[in-house]
Amino acid sequence: MAVAAALGAAGCDAVGGDSPAPSATAKPSPRPTPLWDRSPSSVAAVGDSITRGFDACDVLSDCPEASWATGASPEVDSLAVRLLGRAGAAERSWNYAVTGARMADLPGQVAQAVRRKPQLVTVMVGANDACRATPSAMTPVTEFRADFEDSLRSLRKALPKAQVFVASVPNLKRLWSQGRTSPLGKQVWQLGICPSMLGDADAVDATANLRRNTVQKRVEDYNKVLKEVCAKDERCRYDGGAVYDYRFGTAQLSRWDYFHPSVNGQARLAEIAYRTVTAQRP
Questions:
Q1: How far is Cα of residue 80 from the mean position of the Cα atoms in its chain?
Q2: What letters, b where the CB count within 10 A reaches 16 and e where it falls short, cover 234-255?
Q3: Which GO MF terms does the UniProt record name (predicted)?
């Protein structure tokens, strides 16, 4: 445009021949619609007990009203509430997460969620794939990847323009280091909560350290899969490891199990998700 203006000012015909010069009042071409809508009008959540708000409100029970993704609790200010408003979230957000779910369960949850035709689907899953009786029982990375790819393919086939927010798997080793400061937390962990990481919480010998480091490495591998698979979908946003990197303390952990997020922890997850979903991207 600057070159055309300069030629016009010099009295030159920028068009050539007998063609009329372009109108000075011509309207610029409209900008293409961005692939990522920072204000979707509906939200569906899939995943595990974290998204169900397990142990956030009462012992051994789901508390979906405290869910970071779709909950109505004013203390959490969930992603859905931040995007849609309180009334909009009540009408146009749905939670299909299931306590205990692993990545292998995600395709089935996605099949349920797409029936609502949501504009945004949130995904948080993977902790249960690492939290097994022993490290050898953890979900293999290849299976984790295959099930995640299958889930995204199914979603994309049903809803070509739906957006997907993918949260990283939390840092389980930090959870161990924070929760083990509580005698009550360690006592509860003995009931069988994430034994691959939290078993024998006070043990710091070479065997225990190797076990925890093996689980931690698997979590990092899961997050690499989430990042890589999401990057291949132009309407998918990974949180960049923000959930994994978040330096939570005991205030963000359930006072009943020192494993799941407390109401405060759910609010922090909602902040991370909202920041990712509404971020400007080049």
A1: 13
A2: ebbbbbebbbbebebeeebbbe
A3: phospholipase activity
